[in-house]
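Q: I'm building a small set of examples for a reading group on sequence design. Run inverse folding on the following structure and report the sequence directly after it, with nothing in between.
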């Protein structure tokens, strides 16, 4: 009888101890999470239904992989469609169905193809409702340029195209316009790491235009201030699209005092560009891949952040299951 009592007491203590510590193990298991980044998805030669200027089958294939890899959310770095219109944006949004069904949020920012006229702002908002409204206090910027937090990270998405500020032609805000808000967000103690996203590059490999202006040396003081701000506040990477190639590098400010990592996230479309080696360079190239479709997944585990770029051979107008290959992995 005494043995049975001791056996019961021992089992009770073990059960109680496990009840107390098991949440800690669960928290440890759940500390890993990830997010995806999908690059440009426009398709110039297919403006007809069901494409409406979007690479719908490539989108479906990449989203299927995001669902399979159980990312928490997806960021799109612009040029969602070939030519902005209500039907084009609605088509692009409809092909996020698999993300929606899996509970994966979608956070887009516009590219130049998504902003052919001022009407594109309302069309974009209608297709992608409920985007975060933590935005700069600038007319028309709310919900278009925005920041959000997820777990220990902060994510800032910049729209540098014409916004509806109440004027006839609208206003395209510059990095200088956004910089006080960007710095205020990065100064907050509500995150452990941060990323900044926009469509155009810091310094492109094909396109001469970038987030600062028409060429690599445009607005040097703006470049100095922006790159310095990102470096000072520990931004991990500036991530963009626009060039339809995968390219990873370190970019220096014109004054040489600051440096930031840049990832041009590839192409998720039927369009590819080649590098133009005539650019003045203030960067250290690290990795590049051309003529393949792809996407990026960023994995977070405690203080460790790992980047993975996957790609496949491109395909045409028929649905296909690509063979995704891990082509770049780094921390």
């Amino acid at each position: 009888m005494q043995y049975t009592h001791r056996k019961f007491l021992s089992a009770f203590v073990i059960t109680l101890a496990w009840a107390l510590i098991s949440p800690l193990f669960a928290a440890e298991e759940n500390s890993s999470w990830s997010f995806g980044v999908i690059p440009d998805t426009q398709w110039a030669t297919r403006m007809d239904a069901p494409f409406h200027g979007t690479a719908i089958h490539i989108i479906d294939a990449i989203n299927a992989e995001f669902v399979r890899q159980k990312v928490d959310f997806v960021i799109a770095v612009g040029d969602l469609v070939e030519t902005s219109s209500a039907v084009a944006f609605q088509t692009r949004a409809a092909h996020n169905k698999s993300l929606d069904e899996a509970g994966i949020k979608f956070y887009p920012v516009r590219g130049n193809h998504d902003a052919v006229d001022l009407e594109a702002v309302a069309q974009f908002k209608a297709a992608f409702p409920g985007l975060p409204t933590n935005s700069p206090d600038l007319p028309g910027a709310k919900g278009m340029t925005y920041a959000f937090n997820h777990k220990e990270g902060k994510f800032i998405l910049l729209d540098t195209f014409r916004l509806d500020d109440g004027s006839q032609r609208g206003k395209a805000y510059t990095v200088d316009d956004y910089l006080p808000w960007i710095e205020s967000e990065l100064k907050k103690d509500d995150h452990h790491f941060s990323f900044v996203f926009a469509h155009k590059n810091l310094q492109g490999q094909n396109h001469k235009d970038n987030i600062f202006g028409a060429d690599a040396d445009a607005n040097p003081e703006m470049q100095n201030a922006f790159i310095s701000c990102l470096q000072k506040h520990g931004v991990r990477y500036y991530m963009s699209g626009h060039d339809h190639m995968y390219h990873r590098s370190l970019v220096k400010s014109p004054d040489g005092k600051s440096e930031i990592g840049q990832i041009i996230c590839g192409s998720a479309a039927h369009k590819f560009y080649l590098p133009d080696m005539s650019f003045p360079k203030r960067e250290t190239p690290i990795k590049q891949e051309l003529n393949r479709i792809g996407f990026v997944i960023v994995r977070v585990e405690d203080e460790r952040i790992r980047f993975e770029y996957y790609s496949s051979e491109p395909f045409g107008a028929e649905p296909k299951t690509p063979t995704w290959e891990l082509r770049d992995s780094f921390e």
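The two ends are 60 Å apart (CA to CA).
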